[in-house]
């Protein structure tokens, strides 16, 4: 039995005609770091709030530690929640903000003090305990919010986009800190984000959502290397996977540019159909000889530091490719000859988007 079980969970808001979350099934093991990722409005927060007890569960069962939680109030679910807006009390010091829940629960002063100091040590807040939230940076405020979750010693942490108010650099830093914190504290964590980089770098497993449906559950490697469908393939990865039209006939895959790739597997070759071909930007290669490959023109070259993103035009289709600086320099107007290694291509059904 898994520590947290979501069984056929559904959510319908009163005023909405359709379900917002459809038949959500997931088993989470103790200590796992799970990330819910997906575009805005796909139901991430709704699902998290149902787990927290801040939102009613319309249908299905939520089990934590083997007990059904549907009808329990939030305080009896063993969860601590961290929000995007830090929800700190502006008139209390950092010390009292971290210890607020403990005080409410009437823990004695010394036990409270030990827990607060342990949390502030982990989070590097020792020098700020006397300050008020108004005197802190965004990252420090978020750390105070995390501190409040830590001292509650809840076995489950629920985090809803806790870093989205921070600038890019601080976000990267806090990402590290939360992963570190998870190692230290060991609480089972469900982390909601629409940021695929956070999902890839933080999660033991990622749940990709779209329109209230689970598209795929897997480790970051599985999601990246083995996307179940075109949506997952396009959502995870920067720059995103390229999609071009392909045509299967006479037992071969034909790219729109005329490249013939005959080694497709027999069951795919038997289809005789139009397919969507997915190509990750980093897998496109340069032809060894000038008379090989597909002609492409560089329309824009973005130097990111270690890599270039090249926006190239292949016979009217736009494809992004990624190459290391060592292959450059590149500039607008460069003519390239590209090849697409068969083993790096993904084929998707053109209608359903399912991976073939
Ligand atoms: N209280 C509510 N009443 C009615 N509909 C709601 C309510 N809260 C959310 N919704 C709708 O449910 C859907 C899912 O919302 P939710 O907040 O779970 O999305 P999300 O994935 O967290 O998006 P975001 O990334 O923007 O935070 C949205 O279409 C939203 O409009
Ligand atoms: Mg949300």
Automatic annotation (TrEMBL):
Domain of life the protein comes from: Bacteria
GO molecular-function term, one example from the UniProt record: ATP binding
Annotated protein name in UniProt: ABC transporter ATP-binding protein
Residue stretches making up the ABC transporter domain: 4-236
Species of origin: Peptococcus simiae
Taxonomic classification: Bacteria, Bacillati, Bacillota, Clostridia, Eubacteriales
UniProt KW Membrane keyword: yes
SMART domains (alphabetical): AAA
Gene3D superfamilies in the record: 2.40.50.100, Nucleic acid-binding proteins (2.40.50.140), P-loop containing nucleotide triphosphate hydrolases (3.40.50.300)
Keywords tagged on the record: ATP-binding, Cell membrane, Membrane, Nucleotide-binding, Translocase, Transport
InterPro entries on file: AAA+_ATPase, ABC_transporter-like_ATP-bd, ABC_transporter-like_CS, ABC_transpr_MalK-like, ABC_transpr_MalK/UgpC-like, Mo/tungstate-bd_C_term_dom, NA-bd_OB-fold, P-loop_NTPase
């Amino acid at each position: 039995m898994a520590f947290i079980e979501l069984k056929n969970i559904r959510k319908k808001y009163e005023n909405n005609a359709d379900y917002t979350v459809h038949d959500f099934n997931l088993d989470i093991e103790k200590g796992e770091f799970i990330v819910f990722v997906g575009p805005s409005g796909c139901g991430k927060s709704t699902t998290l709030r149902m787990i927290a007890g801040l939102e009613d569960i319309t249908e299905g069962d939520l089990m934590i530690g083997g007990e059904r939680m549907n009808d329990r109030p939030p305080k009896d679910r063993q969860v601590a929640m961290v929000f995007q807006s830090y929800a700190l009390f502006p008139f209390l010091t950092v010390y009292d903000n971290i210890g607020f829940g403990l005080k409410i629960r009437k823990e004695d002063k010394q036990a409270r003090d030990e827990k607060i100091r342990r949390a502030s040590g982990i989070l590097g807040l020792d020098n700020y305990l006397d300050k008020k939230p108004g005197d802190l940076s965004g990252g420090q405020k978020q750390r105070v919010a995390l501190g409040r979750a830590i001292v509650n010693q809840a076995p489950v942490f629920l985090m809803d986009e806790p870093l989205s108010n921070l600038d890019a650099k601080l976000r990267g830093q806090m990402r590290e800190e939360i992963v570190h914190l998870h190692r230290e504290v060991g609480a089972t964590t469900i982390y909601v984000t629409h940021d695929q980089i956070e999902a890839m770098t933080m999660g033991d497993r990622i749940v990709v959502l779209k329109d209230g449906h689970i598209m795929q559950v897997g480790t970051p490697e599985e999601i990246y290397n083995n996307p179940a469908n075109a949506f997952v393939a396009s959502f995870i990865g920067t720059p995103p996977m390229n999609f071009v039209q392909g045509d299967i006939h006479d037992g071969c895959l034909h790219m729109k540019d005329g490249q013939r790739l005959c080694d497709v597997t027999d069951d795919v070759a038997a289809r005789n159909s139009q397919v969507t071909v997915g190509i990750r930007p980093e897998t496109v290669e340069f032809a060894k000889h000038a008379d090989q490959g597909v002609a492409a023109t560089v329309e824009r070259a973005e130097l990111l530091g270690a890599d270039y993103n090249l926006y190239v035009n292949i016979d009217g289709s736009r494809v992004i490719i990624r190459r290391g600086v060592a292959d450059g320099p590149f500039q607008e107007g460069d003519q390239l000859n590209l090849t697409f290694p068969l083993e790096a291509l993904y084929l998707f059904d053109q209608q359903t988007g399912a991976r073939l």
